[in-house]
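re: that complex we talked abt at group meeting.

here r the seqs, copy pasted straight from the sheet so there may be weird spacing, ignore it
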Amino acid sequence: MECDIRDAALADRGRARILWADRHMPVLASIRSRFERDKPLKGIRMGACLHVTTETANLMRTLVAGGAQVALCASNPLSTQDDVAASLARDFGVSVFAIKGEDNATYYRHLASVLDSKPMITMDDGADLVSLAHGDRRDALQTILAGTEETTTGVIRLQSMAKHGVLAYPIVAVNEAMTKHFFDNRYGTGQSTLDGVIRATNILLAGATVVVAGYGWCGKGVAMRAKGMGAHVIITEVNPVKAIEAIMDGFLVQPMAEAAGVGDLFITVTGNKHVIRTEHFLAMKDGAIVCNSGHFNVELQLEGGLYDIAVSKTAVRDFVEEFALPNGRKIYLLAEGRLVNLSAAEGHPAVVMDMSFANQALSAEWILQHRASLGKSVHVIPEEIDVEIARIKLDTLGYRMDTLTEEQRRYLASWQEGT
Ligand code: ADE
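got the structure back, here u go
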């Protein structure tokens, strides 16, 4: 089995951590047991481009249990957990091509290695594998039947490809499942982003002014958790509806040009480009900390921005770089502007990834069952599957809920009964 990993000797530690995460992923474990018995993915080659974490490892185990042959590369050069990569290769029969800190050339070589395995289903987080298969590696399209996409940023890219008629195979947008974005994007990003900031810097959030750019599900989670830890939170937005939501959730909303001068910590989660630019860096206070938790490292203007105006750059801690500006102030950049939650911490906790990756596993099965009727567009996983995941999750969390009585069911289906 082909692999390119940092160090095979890390496998024992990786295995122990994968099994720890598995304790918090009961929905995925139940799917894995059924997959082991029924083998719904038998004979299917799968190519995955995901953050190589303990949670992803449990998804890979599930696909292998279902009979798939799996090749995996990283969906970000800094998010790989090298011990997990080692264990996946040694213990779980996965071809892994991922090394934490790999340069861009290696990152793309690893994507190409996954396409070399001639996948029939792609599983992306950010659509880099799909993009490569539609660009320099169109040969891969000969074997690909369909794919799945994990994240908002990837779904936006794929919808644009479908709209322009260039998407060559159907994709299931896992992100659109309720059991994915309501939980992973909000509670997962909320906690893991602050975890990344705290591990990198050890700053106190109580009393700090935190500027969160973007009030989508991820921004909501980050803002809510920062507020919970005692920070004063300012939201920047371009969408008036989301701006009102932020105001009524109790936050101050300001343009970045105003927030730049008052923030102690800046976190971008917009999915858009150059949200913090040269003029904002120059307006920041001495000691301001800047990071990104959106999928791509484009939200901060670094090339043509911070990197160009800085008079010096010094590494001060793991994942913290100091930039001295011509105005005499110093700005601190975390994790080179890449996803701070996966670079400086471990990504979302297993409890939420359980539901996200249950959707991934069931989407792979659903694609195979329905592939004859799926158009070359972006599909949403059926609501019954989504609700079934929620039902199992609720049950495994140890909670019960009410069910509709027959009278209530009839009432909801009727229109005659009024005052
Ligand atoms: N995306 C965010 N957190 C993640 C995790 N723990 N594993 C895989 N992908 C992630």
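couple things i noticed - DSSP finds 17 helices and 15 strands in the chain. The pocket of adenine is lined by residues 50-51, 53, 55-56, 188, 342, 347-348, 353 (CB under 6 Å).
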